[in-house]
Amino acid sequence: MARSLDGLVLSPVVDQAPGQVGTATRFTYHEDDGCVWAEYAGGDVVRGHLVGTREGDRLDFRYVQLKRDGRTASGHCVSTVVELDDGRVRLEESWEWESQEGSGTSVVEELPSSVLSSRSLLDDVSGA
């Protein structure tokens, strides 16, 4: 099993369609005894939250987000946790909107520590 997600900051490796998460979005993950949750923001997303479970290297969660245009959206995602050769974590995701039409796949990866050295990045995600 790949290491804990607790405290990790991840970001999509490519942009999705407008109004969805993209490379400017930052996810701050938390994990405790099989429970997983995260806050996220950036790009077209003002604020988002996800909550779910982890069994081994499989995540199953629901997400809800407020977009810059003032609309909300929600959906379901199943992810596989992969540990990269450099020790960072990747999530390979299959998702489906529940509040609107659409589904797809995406990849988010743990940001390198050199990117995280800027405290303002973490402040933006946490709302501080």
Entry keywords:
128 residues, mainly beta, globular
Strand percentage lies at: over 45%
Quaternary organisation: single chain
Shape: globular
Order of helices and strands: EEEEEEEEHH
Q: What class would the helix/strand composition place it in?
A: mainly beta
N/C terminus separation: 33 Å
Walkthrough of the structure:
The protein has 128 residues and is mainly β. 9% of the residues lie in helices and 54% in strands. The chain is built from 2 helices and 8 strands, in the order E-E-E-E-E-E-E-E-H-H. An 8-stranded antiparallel β-barrel has the order 1-2-3-4-5-6-7-8. The longest helix is centred in the C-terminal third of the chain and has 8 residues, at 119-126.
Q: Can you summarize this structure?
A:
The protein has 128 residues and is mainly beta. Helices cover 9% and strands 54% of the residues.
Ordered list of secondary-structure elements with their pairings:
Layout: E1 9-12, E2 26-32, E3 35-42, E4 45-55, E5 58-67, E6 72-83, E7 89-97, E8 103-110, H1 113-116, H2 119-126
Antiparallel strand pairs: 1-2, 1-8, 2-3, 3-4, 4-5, 5-6, 6-7, 7-8
